[in-house]
Amino acid sequence: MPISNKSKQDVSTHSESSDQQPTVNKIGIHALYAENPIAADEQVFGRKTDGLTRRGFLSGFKTLSLLLGAEIVYGRFMPAGLIPAALAQTETPFSIEGKDGLVVLNDRPVNAETPAHLLDDKITPASKLFVRNNGIVPEITPKDFDENAWTLTIEGESAAASRTFTLSELKANFKHYTYQLTLECGGNGRAEFSPAASGNQWTTGAVGCPSWTGVRLKDVLNAVGIKDDAVYIGYYGEDLHLSRTPGKAAISRGVPIGKALEDESLIAFEMNGEPLPLMNGFPMRLMFGGWPASTSGKWLSKIVIRDRVHDGAKMGGNAYRVPCKPVAPGTSVPEDEMCIIEAMPVKSLITYPKSGAEHSKGKALAVRGHAWSGEAEIAKVFTSIDFGQTWQQSALSKPVNRHAWQHFNVDISFKQAGYYEIWARAEDANGRSQPMVLPGWNPKGYLNNACHRVAVKVV
Ligand SMILES: Nc1nc2c(c(=O)[nH]1)N[C@H]1C(S)=C(S)[C@@H](COP(=O)(O)O)O[C@H]1N2
Ligand SMILES: [Mo]
């Protein structure tokens, strides 16, 4: 299975110091591991593990250590079939106006993610927020933009009336609120699924947590009037379907009315005190913190209040839905056994050090990152440097508001020089945590909240 995605790291870039077989050069390391992780271990690194524990090394320890440039100190615990974190990162620079250091996954439509170390800020700057477009970005010129010319219409079976507001009216007639809200694509982490899931091969960077200013969706919906039978809202934006068919939506998703009426659910027109970047939905978008970002409609022009689950584009089939009950990898699941993704699961990201960093043995390494969950506040974050054998609890901040990510930091000491992986694992107030390996397989590769891993070479 050849892969064409240019962000996939080709093993050939690491081949100089190793004795790999030539076939490896034709296929990316993720694809190779996705096909058969144990065979990939052997093919790439000559690695064999204990058949019972599936950890450690019967062979290949030297090759892999050589490739990583240091001895794998906790090698006896290293799980089989796991791409070393040092080799799993992607590094293709991307340039779109106003974005800095993002990695391109696709340019038609534009999709770009942020390398973990560039998400180090507590409040994600606009230049570091990922971009996920399903269609063609509307032709709007943010400079000299006329706020009287952009309208938002509220209608639908369960709207008491149909009303249209200009952006200036929305800004003038409703109170403004500011919240820091986590925006994460439901497919963040998809690259690791096996069998491989189609779609953008996000690694860890389809997430960010800027500060958003706007009006409360509930204030606007209540001003129009919500009928008693309302169950859902749906959005429409001004982007075009890739086919450029007039009137055909690229995406039109929504949330249950309960989520729509939360205080933090916004019609947002500012990110970090500035107008939204065009790519992130200028001049206004929905913002539902902690839910799949596909619910946060960009270039917003219409909201429908529905008496049934919204049935717009990408609400059905395998789109943003997962099997209601766990299934074996590769299973084909009937429509009626698929459930819409609601809150995103517990997750964390190490933003310092950058994976692959060198650190000197003499001093402790100050590790930091963020943790979040769409369901509940994060209660604890742990890190491990021995492939999950032991865990150290880190310091953790409170969220500035509901659905904002939290920050953790911990000083880690290393007794011996060598190759290490730092793993992070968060746990929320309901006791829900992150798996160390891939969670439940689903056809489109959503909801991968496996522990984040970064490589560190201690010298
Ligand atoms: N109108 C519109 N809204 C949209 C999309 C889109 O393609 N069109 N993509 C959705 C998806 S799948 C995601 S992950 C987020 C991405 O938001 P961002 O590009 O601001 O990071 O926007 C959501 N809202
Ligand atoms: Mo998404």
UniProtKB/TrEMBL annotation:
Residues 142-312 form the Oxidoreductase molybdopterin-binding domain. Residues 7-17 have a biased composition (Basic and acidic residues). GO terms for biological process: sulfur compound metabolic process. Keywords: Metal-binding, Molybdenum, Oxidoreductase. InterPro entries: Ig_E-set, MoCF_OxRdtse_dimer, Mopterin_OxRdtase_euk, OxRdtase_Mopterin-bd_dom, OxRdtase_Mopterin-bd_sf. Coiled coil: none annotated. GO terms for molecular function: heme binding; molybdenum ion binding; molybdopterin cofactor binding; sulfite oxidase activity. This is Sulfite oxidase.
